[in-house]
Amino acid sequence: MPKVDKSDGTKRPALLPAGFKDQLPLSAAHESSIVRRIIARCESSGYERVKPPLIEFEDSLLYGPGESMMDSTFRLMDPLSGRMMGIRADMTVQVARVASTRLRHMERPLRLCYSGEVLRVQPASLTPERELVQVGAELVGPDNVAADLEIILLAFDALQQVGAKNMSIDISTPTLVPIVLQSMNIDMINSPNLRSALDRKDITEVEKLAGVASELLVNLMEAAGSWEAGMKKLRKLTLPVEAIKIIERLENAASLISSKTQMLEVTIDPVENRGFEYYNGLGFSFFSRGVRGELGRGGRYSLEGEAAESSCGFTLYMETLLRALEGPKKKDKLFVPVSVNGELLTELQKSGWTTVSGLEIVVDEHAEARRLGCSHFLENRTIKTI
Hints:
It is built from 13 helices and 16 strands. Helices cover about 35% and strands about 25% of the residues. The protein has a domain at about 335-385. Strand 3 and strand 4 (about 85) form a beta hairpin. It has helices spanning about 25-45, 60, 90-100, 145-160, 175-185, 190-200, 205-210, 215-220, 225-235, 240-260, 320-325, 340-350, 365-370; strands at about 50, 55, 75, 85, 110-120, 130-140, 165-170, 225, 265-270, 280-290, 295-305, 310-315, 335, 355, 375-380, 380-385.
C-alpha cells in the first residue's frame, strides 16, 4: 500500500530514500552491458565467477577484513534463526570468505571474479549513492609483485575496453606509516587524530600531533605525486628495514606498470589510508581526469581461515565508471506487424534485429512503429526506416 506524505496528504509511491534510484530502461541496459563486458574480460584471463548472497549472518560478514565495513552495514534480524544478519556493503570480503572456506581446497593461485549490488548506511563523501554496483576480481595465493601487476593491468584493460579514458592510478602503502611510527614507539591505533590529519594531508596538524615523528611524516606526505619524483624523495629518507622493503615494492610495482603501458599515469601516496584499513600490502585507486570519485580501487590483504593466505584484487564502482563513459545510445528497433509469422520473426532476431511485435492489426504501421519508439518497420517483408 502506498505511503502517505503527512505534510500534504498526497500519495507519493515513487518517493525513494536518499541515495537510492530507479534504473530506467536505457540506463539499466547500458549498465548491464558494461558489467557483462568487464566480467567477460576477467573470464578471458582465467577468472571464474562466484556469486555470494546479498545477506549473511553478521558475525561472518563482518569477520576479518569485513570488520572495516561495520559502520557501513545495514543490519536486520533473521526471523528464522533469531540471529542478526547484515546486508553486504562490500563484495570483496564475501569473496574472501568463499575463497578461504568453500574453495580452500582448490589449487592456488585461485582466480575469482564477481559482480552485484551492495548497500551502504552512509554515502561516500564524493558520491551520493547508497546502493552501488561492484564488479571485481581476486587473485588468491601468491604474494609477489607479479600478482599485484596482473590484477592492476587486468583492471586497467577492462576499464579501457569499456571506454574509460585519461586514466591514472594512485598507489598507496597503507602499512608504511604504522611501521614508521612503531619504530619510534608511537601507537597509531591510539592516535586517530594523527591518522585523520595524515589522510587530509594537513601538514600543520601533523606537525602539531606527531612529535618526534613530525619531520619524517611530513617528508612522506611531500613524496605524494608523480611516482618517479616521489621515489627520489623517499630514497633520501632514513627508514626502518621493514619500511624500506615496502618502499622497494612500491617502486618495483610503479616501474613495471609504467613499462607495460604509456596510457596510464602513475602516482604514489605513501601515507594514504582511507578505505585501505584492512590492506597489508600495496593499495591502489583508479581515476579518470575530470570525473568525480574513484573508478575503482584494490590492493593486497590477508584472508582469514584455517591457514592465513594473501590475496590481491580490485573492485570497480559502476556509478563512477558510468560517469566516465559516453552515455547510452538508443538501439535500433524494428516494428513487426502482428500478421508476421514466427519463423520470419526468429530469422530477423537471429540476424541481429531487436524486434517489437504488434499485438493487434493497425491501419498505419508506420505511425504505430513511430509511436512505439522504433527506428524501422517491416512492410511486405521489407525493412523500412522511420
